[in-house]
Hints:
The complex is a heterodimer. Helices cover 36% and strands 15% of the residues of chain A.
Amino acid sequence: MADYLPHTPDEVGEMLSFIGMGSLDDLFAHIPEALRLAGGLDIPAGRAEPDVAVEVARWGDANRAAGLTCFAGGGAYDHEIPSVVRALASRSEFVTAYTPYQPEVAQGVLQALFEYQSLVSRLSGLPIANASLYDGATALVEALNLAHGATGRSRMLVSAGVHPHWRRVAATFASGTGHEIEIVPLRDGVTDWSSAHAGDDVAAVVAAYPNYLGALEPLDAARTVANERGGLLVVAGDPVSAALVRSAGEWGADVYVGEGQAFGTPLSFGGPYLGLFAVREDQVRRLPGRIVGETVDAEGRRAFVTTLRAREQDIRREKATSNVCTNQTLIAVTAAIQLGWLGTRGLAEVARACAVGAHALFDEVTSLPGVAPAHGSPFVREFAIRLARPASEVVEAMAGEGILAGLSVGALTGGADPSIEDPDHVLLVSVTERRTRAELDHYVSTLGKVVR
Amino acid sequence: MMAAMPGARAASAPLMGREVEPTMFELSVTGRSAAQLRTTGIAPRDLGEIIPSEHLRDAPLETVALSERDLVGHVTRLTHRQFSVDLGMYPLGSCTMKYNPKFCDTVAGDPRLASVHPGAPAALTQGWLELLVTLEERLCAITGMAGVTLQPAAGAAGELTGLLLMRAYHASRGDVRRRVIIPDSAHGTNPASVTLGGYEVTTIPSNDRGLVDLGALRAALGPDVAGIMLTNPNTVGLFEEEIAEIAEAVHEVGGLLYYDGANLNAIVGVVRPGDMGFDIVHMNLHKTFATPHGGGGPGAGPVAVAPHLVDFLPGPRPTRLAEGYGWGEPAHSIGRVHGWHGNALVLARALAYIEVHGSDGLARVAQHAVLNANWLRRRLAETLPAAYDRPCMHEAVLTASPIKSATGVKALDVAKALLDEGFHAPTVYFPLIVDEALMFEPTETESVQTLEALAQAIESIAQRAGSDPEALRAAPRHTPVGRVDEALAARVLKSTEDAARPR
């Protein structure tokens, strides 16, 4: 049995007597006896750290995926995280701080968040970024809520190119807000906006860039729909691709949402990740979550502080723009550090290496028998292929050869989906800057063997 | 106070840096860089060959240009301008800033957990699934509930998930309900979540003992009440002794009881929300189970439910199979509430904490947290009297109103002056129902020597409030910056390097 409590038995005795109590149980004597737990919790007795470490190692060893060469993406990518970023991001001053309510002793976190916001603003091409949300999916939910607040309308046109999990999360939260979400199907990887129901009662038009199947579709069509129907244009964009392709802001987005895991956070079995969120100036008063602003202190020195607080739940309560309180500060700080390490040159090199690697692999696998492109649209760093065998079987077989081959689109969509026909035979493949020529060769030869 | 106290006082304030740190953009020198990437051996190609020009950027995306040494210096200097639990006592009421065991960080950093892709099939992630199922079982045992979702990424996300579960449950019975009841002492996330859950808030007053006024509750109840959200112990640090009567009254009108787990750390191993009659329970793993707060996240806000709500839980859920583990979808699931499986590495940290402590260790955590709060409350009784004169739980709401009436020095000034003494401030002006509130949550991991040093610092501040109130209004003076101009920050928003500077 181990713990982290400092008091000696003597100290406990003296403290109890100071407050006029005879035992630790007396501290809870005012709680009705009938409610108190008799016999303790039904969980195992405590164990020392090294004993628990043995069990943790057992769990780790049972994760076969940890040892595979990763070609899976779908919003979660295997990027380089250097020693320097790991060391800086694990500084306990960041790790063990609270939300910066006392700015006089929180300038470290506040300035790091200011730098993060600056970087997200540049990536998104929009002037205002918040201090992070939970993940890309919940950032989309906040964008829909913002669009409702901005327009007073409840109908959301969401491209089927938005990640299936994000769409599912949006649908879950719509059961509370009452928003009506219409999924607009893809044709050959591109959103068919003409199939959306008519009507100018739209709050938001949501497009993904590139979309979850990797396809890059020009966003002028979505912008036009938003203009005609009066809604905001929300762009869900991959922030790594943003180093190469036009930004959400350049396409005319009102709101940008994205998943920021790629910047310094390991795959982590899906979390904690990082919800990127940026808006045009006219939406700043509806921004969800926290935002850090620059100001001065009593002596006129530069200082940072969380600002525009009047939007937030602890002040506005049931009229707040969002219920977000704790967000993902440490992951946002990590992203700023990783982007600081990458710099202008490194970020471009990473994006370019991903794109070049993905196109090399795409060209080679689509020349294999039993493998074909799943759509004809251009892509950046992730692509979808249609296989002669169910994708889940291919993933399983290639795992035996040391490769995580990608994600079965059918597993992501959970069945039939307006994004693509027969998703069970579609595999989503991603290449990062960590994949080598030899690993691509191994992938191609293995897929050639297992796909038939 | 204790007669002869061994141990020495350690001070943290002088350690903090007072020089303004340039931003990483200001430090940039074009041409510098730190990144070193893998040599891939993949033949380079012109971007124009692979991406149509209509999509390509016109100009490169400029970020920063730093050497690795620049970056290390910059970030390290920022950390010297940041207070943290590891540096000193952080008695921020309602936030549970206890020591975060390093062992749990090591668990989260294990590459066999951290490098696993969330979309990998179950057969390849058996260890993670076992970990998650084990944590679910522990959380059910701790709360006295039947099932749990680990997806919500924070407490507020858990609240909203709980409200959607409430909605789905009533809807499944063809029961349309409109209102959710919240005491006036509640955290702001509660009413904000209620609105997003599609309900209206009905606020009920607390009685003069700081507890739910049972009469007011009964008057507010009716067939259109979906449920009530309660924190117990409540936000003034007091246990709702009439919880059984509250539960009976709410259940009588067909409503559900929602337990806001913000203060679960006070009662873990002593009382279970399920035994108090709650139907839905969210937990803040970053509070109760000591996963670090990260400067404002990531946390984790799992939601546990009673048997009649298990079928509505978000899916997919990790599931124990006849052989091994898999994913299952609850029969009437409300759907996903997270892009993947929740903040998995935070969940792993929490499970490590639970396994190390075990059943008696967790109960001792609650006992010592309550002991420390009561000791501090008694120790400061002459200086900062308690808002409610009765034993508290894990936190003590004290009031600076006697100091204010005598000297004009406010709760905020006392809090700011504490920063100069090397302590983080307590929570100020919350709960809203207490005048000049200073809410202290010492947590179980602070020693009595540290509590005594805090008490002496407060006594010294109280004395100076009488002799030199102006100096206290100008505090803090030894922190990285002095009081900041919040009005300027809001009036001229400069939230990025590229925006114009406020002046």
